Amino acid sequence: MSSTGIIFNIQRFSVHDGPGIRTTVFFKGCHLGCRWCHNPESRSFEIEEFNGKSLGEKYTIDKLFSEIEKDRVFYDESKGGVTFSGGEPFAQSDFLKEIITKCKTNEIRTVIDTSGYVDRNILKKFVNITDLFLYDIKLIDPVLHLKYTDISNTEILSNLDYLMSQKANIIIRIPMIPRITATEENIKQIRDYILKYDTKPEINLLPFHKIAESKYKKYGIKYQMINSTDLTNDQIEHFKKIFAESGFNIKLGG
Ligand code: SF4
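# iron/sulfur cluster complex -> structure
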């Protein structure tokens, strides 16, 4: 039976969410509470109302697929496709599986952008049907991870181990949050964690910026990064070098 999902945005012509030109579908709902979240309106699993406007909309598989298919010509020309992001797409796993399967049947390439916080038995169902995982790694220290995201990283790191063992196609994305994730210690810990694998996944560093602050104001959510400043170019170059010196292919942004 076809399921329904709650989507809060569909963004066309994305070039930072995987290869080529992509349509990014943002799923509503996330179990994490990252202090720096750029999409605070994505966290609740409910359709919310703000100033007479709905945040989130119910989609059937057919309705979502027809939106995705509209951009097929751009996917074909650029080797792009569709990216499922959020929120956390795995939090609506039945709907996600159904739409990915439909895309695969129709030869549209798929990417899942995930926090990695997903039950292993669910993740297993996606290994062979997803073309690429954009996998966020935030903090290696479990205490700091819990402190800044409200969730332990045990399952997230273990799921990364699993995907790497399955030779899944993975790009690791690191949000570079000043004084939280973008510290010498954490970046070196992430590098060392990933170095244990047989292959070296591409690393994307995602520098923090305060553009999300206005969204927090708009939706009446407390912004916890008020005192943060952007990283300098020198700091970013330094962190890039830590990975580059160990032979990682590293990019800024997605
Ligand atoms: S995992 Fe992503 S969507 Fe969820 S709270 Fe963190 S930054 Fe926001």
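# post-check
Residues 4-252 form a domain with the TIM Barrel fold (CATH 3.20.20.70).
DSSP finds nine helices and eleven strands in the chain.
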